[in-house]
Design brief:
Jelly Rolls, alpha+beta, 27% strand, 160 residues, 4 helices, four-stranded antiparallel β-sheet
């Protein structure tokens, strides 16, 4: 699918991929591909089936959600090294936010269905990958919570 050595090197340059066992890095690299997206490109829509998982190598991505009476609100910006589209490997495989590139982005991308099969069939890969996915989700949850607290605090002071 791509140049395995280059993808392993790219994985090692991220918090998500560095420190993974070499066999896991190679397995992921064999399944991944490099993609470049222009700024303003929607990669995933909230509520829709998530088809891909990606690791940002360059650029930034906004995670947006629909807030009643406010429209689409950016709840978090993800930076190089972080994961987008993790919903593609976690049932029910639907996006929890809308994912939009803020600027040109280079990402390692994995087909969600292929990654799910690999994780189901290779317990060692699942054992090292799922904790990293959980770290990504946990970091996102904490950052989103702070962002939402800030958003509601601004609304409260604006109405006073």
């Amino acid at each position: 699918m791509g140049d395995t050595a280059a993808l392993v090197a790219a994985l090692n340059a991220t918090w998500f991929g560095s420190g993974l066992p070499p066999s896991a890095q190679t397995r992921l690299a064999d399944m991944g591909r490099l993609e470049t997206y222009p700024g303003g490109r929607e990669l995933l829509t909230e509520g829709e089936v998530a088809e891909e998982v990606g690791i940002v190598l360059e650029g930034r991505i906004a995670l947006r959600t629909l807030v009643p009476e406010r429209g689409m609100v950016t709840i978090l910006t993800i930076e190089p090294g972080d994961v987008w589209g993790w919903s593609a490997i976690v049932p029910p495989y639907r996006g929890t936010s809308t994912v939009v590139t803020i600027e040109p982005v280079t990402s390692i991308v994995f087909e969600g269905a292929a990654l799910r099969i690999a994780l189901r069939e290779d317990s060692k890969l699942a054992q090292v990958l799922y904790p990293r996915i959980l770290v990504a989700v946990s970091r996102r949850l904490a950052a989103s919570r702070l962002q939402l607290l800030d958003l509601f605090a601004r609304d409260a002071t604006a109405g006073a």
